[in-house]
Each structure stands twice: as structure tokens, then as C-alpha cells.
Sequence to fold (311 residues):
Amino acid sequence: MLSEVLGVASDITCSDGINKAFVVTEQDLKHFSQIGTKWVAEGGAGEVTVRCKALLKKTREALLSDTVDTILEYTNPSKRQIYNISLQMCNRKEGRTFQLDLQSCEYPNLIQVTVGGSNSTQTEELFHSLMAELNDTVQWYWIFACRRWLLRLVTWMFWIFLVLLLSCATLSVMGTAYRNYQARKQHEEWLKKYGSVTQKSDRVTTGQIKDVPKTDKTQPEIRKDAPSGPIWQLIRSKQFLVQLGVIVGGILLERMTFWLFPKAVFEIGKGKQRHEKLKARRKWIAGVLTAIVIAGIIVPIVKNIVLKFFE
Fold:
């Protein structure tokens, strides 16, 4: 497999990704940079090319440098915080390459590693050790932060729901057509047996008609100023309100999950303080939810005990 990093193709290339939420500290980033620099510098320092890049939110600017120190010294404010870091290094003489992408987008992966060289043993050894160290940065909540599995699940559920909906609609149409056919057939048989209604209408005399007693049914009062129409009736229906509540609640829950469990966290500059506050909020919310669940279990038990005691 051939892969190019900064225009250099390696004979042996190992590449893989980790699609799980991660937290990278200043020490981790410096350590990974030292690993890559050491790998490409073994063939000769004169042929080494290094490019470190960090993308910033809400701006088109980026931090570009030939060392990782520029990224580590960045203040990383909240309005222009880092959301993507890329380390690209190569040795044109030895054909060694090193690329590490740490990003907040799942496509293709949140963490992507590429190591290239001419010796397969050394290349694979470095690649596997680097993957093991990167796995240590993965967070426990990655299943909440990463949404690729959720998109697949929703896609399958959508197609299953669509197939069931089409099947039910087809069966409903066929059932309606069959019932109409049976009703029409019975009507034709009745006409053949008893004749038309107009032919027998003269047999009905005036004395045979009985007065139908009037039923006293109070009609509900309809307000003239109240809006009417099928759209308004749909909006006022309980099913519509429940569905709307589920949709809005799902959107709010997804937004809150995205806020509490970010995919990529860079503890660089002020990013460390932001991460500490986020972990404190997660603990507070988890404590409130735990208290609610425990109260929901204990309160009914205590209530039953108290009622039995005073009986």
C-alpha cells in the first residue's frame, strides 16, 4: 500500500483510524510530535520536512508552523478554540512518513494515523505502539459522542418503517377494494331478488308511515370565533402534540449530549479549564439524575410502609 505525506511515497505504509471520542493534553501532543520527529529524522536531518497545523473555530485562520511549539503556546480562547490538529512529517531521502490527524469530525475517523517507511518490521512496530498510546486518550463516553452508529441505526429503522408503512398501505387498499366488491355484489343480488325500490314505493301507504319520535339531543355549542379546519384540528390533537414534544425533546437531548460529551477535547491553553468545568457539570447532572431515580424508588416504598403502619 502506497500513501503520500507531503509528496513523499513510502514503500511500506501502515494506516488506520480510531473513531472514538478523545482528550489530548499538551504532554500528549508534544509526545506524539517527538515520536514522529524521531522517526523521520533517523535517515538524515537535512531531508526532514515538518508541518504542524491547527484549525480554529469561527475563523478561516490556522496555526501553521514547522514545530509543535506554536500550537502548544496558543492561548486557545473559547471563541477561537482549536478543533483540528494535523502533524505531517517526512524524510525525502529515506522515504519515511508520519501523519497524525486529531479532529472533531467522524469522517473518515476522529483519529487517523499513517506511518510509512522502507523497513516493514520497524514501520509496523512504530505503528502498533502509536495506536496503543492513542487508544489511551479515548474517553469512556465515546458511544454518546460518536454518532456514526446512531446514524446507521436510524437509517435501518427508517427503511424498516418505510417497508412496513408501504405494506400496511397496500393491504389497506386491497382490503378496501375487496370490501367494495363484496358490497357491490351483494347489492346486485338484492336488486335481482327484490327489484328496484322505485317499483315498490307505491305499495307504501300513508297510514303505514309512522311518525318517528324526535330525540332530544343537545348539540355542543360551537364558538364562532374559534378557528376551525382540518389543519387546526390536527394541531389541537393530542397525538400531534405528543409527536411534536418527542421531536423537540429529542433535538434538545441530542444538543445537550453534544455539549456534555464532545468528540474532541484539546487541553491546550484555556482548553484545560474548559474541560475541568465540563467534567464538573457532568458530575452535577449525573448526581441530580441519580437522586431522582433513587427518590422514585424509595418514596413509594416508604409511602407503602407508612400507610400500612397507620392502618
